[in-house]
Amino acid sequence: MNAVTKDRPMTIGLMGQPNTGKSTFFNALTGSRQHVGNWPGKTVERKSGYALIDGRRVSVVDLPGTYSLSANSDEERITRDYICDGEADVIVALVDASQLERSLYLLADFAGIDVPVVVALNMTDVAAAKGITVDAQALSERIGVPVVSTVATRKEGLERLLSAAVSPRGSAAKLRTEELERIYADVFGDAYRRLLALLPDTKEGRHGRSWIAGKLLEGDDRLRERVIRLLSADGRKGVEAILGGVKDGALLAADCKFAWISTMLSGIVRREERGAARRGRFDRAALHPAFGKALSVIAVLAGFVLSMVVAAPVMMGLMVLTPVASSAAGAGLASLGLPAVVVSLVSEALIPSTLMAGMMAAVILGVALVFGILEDVGYMARVSYNFDNLMSKLGLHGKSVMSFVMSLGCNIGGITGSRVIDSWQQRLVTIATSWVIPCGGVWGVTLLMGSLFFGAEAIWVLLLILVLLIAHMKLTSHLFGRVFIKDMDRTGLIMEMPPYHKPNWKTILSFVWVRISTVFTKAFFVIVGVSVGMWLLSYSPSGDVSKSVIYRIGSVIEPFGMLFGLDWKLFTAFIISAMGKEASLGVLAMLYGIGSGASSFTGTMMSSSFAYDNAALSTALLSSVPKASALAFMVAFFFNVPCMAAIAATRIELRSTKWTLLIVAYYLAVALLLGGLAYRVGLAVF
Amino acid sequence: MRRLSEARGGSAYLIEKIEGDTRFVSRVTAMGLTERSKVDVIQNGGRAPVLLFARDTAVAISKREAKNIFIREFDL
To answer: What is the pLDDT of residues A85-103, one digit of tens each?
Structure first.
């Protein structure tokens, strides 16, 4: 065991199954003294923080929630490795007092590992409501380690638990395993005893021999490989021979663990006979074969609206502030005699984009708050259930439907909402697929251009786009799924349906609070960065676009754009629309020489000093753009990257710039290809 | 023997056999479904996942996974 010195604080590893109130517990222990990152080399989130007990700092690491300690998922491997090789001085095992039999399975899988453990018997309030009482003292004597009753939502028992963990008794407490070993010997017979004899005396990390033997009999290949390397040739042969003769090892091992649990629990749990009011009325509706789905969609949309309401004050404020601030800054800087370039940079790029980053952060936080509540309450599991079948057609899990529905309102909502999806890989595939879903801004421009160029026939164009939309979603989800989701992880739904419980406001709010500064900073850098870049490319003092850098680039690569039917103006407008869709008309106006008041594209998009006449724009477009090109542009525009806020939100959710850029490149390429396809079709038809 | 994917909502069953690779067995047993344990099926309609109680926990299992679990009616 690591020596606890004055310089190195004691470290506690918090282990528990999902839905045992672990995040509430962790937050209650560490408050705002938290740090969020990734487990090294993995995509699983790692939370760590500090708790205070008797004036001492204790480091707490939140281990991923897992149902057992097998080697089947990243979460389990991380937890297992951390416990055995890592820095934890003591493990706090969180169990759910109201579902004790299943909840102890993780502890049963831990038994035999040579690390001190203290049990937190959480959710005793929920247990009491169900008429269940647990004799913590008796349980503690049975299993040989301290057992402390807690109600994390009310912060009850936490001090006693921490004291137990850091006390001399707690920091030496090892789980009693004689009973478990006896059961294994009983069930596996000779194989277990012979296996134990062959295993080396030196411990593999802190694994005990009986734990290793149990895991090997279970069929844990990863452990087998590690152990085999430590054995002599004879030992290796012996082990392989024993394991080869074991049938249904995993099933038998599970039986052993549950047998141990029921032995440990006998006489310890008292249950009042209550009429099993197992499922509330709401749940019958929430899970109803017909209504359930509709209710889920309504709930998601309502949640989205509510997120907007939460974000509204900030957004309103910033929307009002932006034109005021940018023109005030512009006037102020000009009056100071600063060159027009600087005035333009500040008033057209820096100020509007900073305020836009603020608006975006507000939306993200609104969504994180509302959907954090839905997740905490337990409703998300119902959504998973309702849409499992439909989403599996895209190779995704039920919860992904939520991102798709939200994206109809705003892609940022869909992207941020994806954080309720459990695995990072699933989240990435979902986000990548959700980008294609058109938000309000896309429809505005699409319908306008459609009616302008095609009149009544625009309906056919829209139908074409709809068909392409569905094909795009299928292609994208399967392509990204193939790359990111290994076949191994592609197992069907086996999910716990937790009972509803009251949302824990402290947990949810602290979760949001911890993220505010990170979200704003990241959003800031992407949005301001992209805006300034765009400004640099499109700046021209007179507002005449043919003097800007982007004109020079655009005309040079015009032949490339023409492959897809887009001349340099349309191609430029297409590229810029990746920044934002609603303002694309303004950009087009500037490109076609209509309108005045801005000296860069960012000026047309973000400040309000730019003005143009819609009729003039329509005339200009109709006279210079052939129908086939208009079709190409409409399609390419529709399927392009949603907006730079979406890019920023994606980067925040995925915690990776690399993959975000991959998705951007993918969308640009596919949008161009589809536009080119539409162009060929248009040439043939018109 | 019946498969869990064909179970009737509102009925109680005993799990007789669980087939499948180690990964599947680990996941399913960790959820509380083991051979000779009792499950109360809540609902099992259309193409939706099977919803059941196993060891006092509500669990949802997709039809595809549930095919690997064999059950028989539970007589008291």
So the answer is: 868 899 999 999 999 999 9
Look at residue A565 and tell me whether its pLDDT is greater than 80: yes
Q: What are phi and psi of A345, to 5 degrees?
A: -55, -45
Taking only the tens place, the pLDDT of each residue in A14-68 is 999 999 999 899 989 987 778 888 888 888 889 999 998 888 899 999 999 999 9
Which of A68, A287, A392 has the CB atom closest to B51's CB atom? A287
Between chains, do A218 and B22 touch, taking CB under 8 Å as contact?
yes
Mean pLDDT across A185-213? 83
Residue of chain A whose Cα is closest to the Cα of B24: A491
A contacts of B32 (beta carbons < 8 Å): 101-102, 105
* Tokens encoding A96: 């759910």
Cα four-point dihedral sign B9, B13, B17, B20: positive
Three state DSSP letters for A394-454: CCCCCCHHHHHHHHCCCHHHHHHHHHHCCCHHHHHHHHHHHCCCCCHHHHHHHHHHHHHHH
Q: Provide, for chain A, the percentages of residues in helix, strand and coil under a 3-state DSSP scheme, each rounded to the nearest 5.
A: 65, 10, 25
Parallel, antiparallel or unpaired: strands A147-149 and B38-43: unpaired
**CA–CA gap between residue A540 and residue A549 (Å, rounded):** 8
State residue A205's pLDDT score. Answer: 61
**CB distance from B42 to chain A under 8 Å?**
yes
State the residue for tokens 């734990």. Answer: A211
Q: Which chain B positions have a beta carbon within 8 Å of A221's beta carbon?
A: 22
Please give the ipTM for the structure prediction: 0.95
Helix axes A657-685, A627-638, angle to 10 degrees: 160
Determine phi and psi for A495, rounding to 5 degrees.
Answer: -135, 140
Pairing state of beta strands A90-96 and A117-122? Answer: parallel
Q: Which is it for strands A90-96 and A10-16: parallel, antiparallel or unpaired?
A: parallel
In the three-class reduction of DSSP (H, G, I as helix; E, B as strand; rest coil), residue B15 is classed as: strand
Residues in chain B within 8 Å Cβ distance of A72: 22-23, 26-27
Tally of residues, chain B: 76
pLDDT band at A279 (very low <50, low <70, confident <90, very high): low
Please name the amino acid found at residue A360: M
DSSP B57-71: EEEEE-HHHHTTEEE
With beta carbons less than 8 A apart as the criterion, state whether A20 and A96 touch: yes
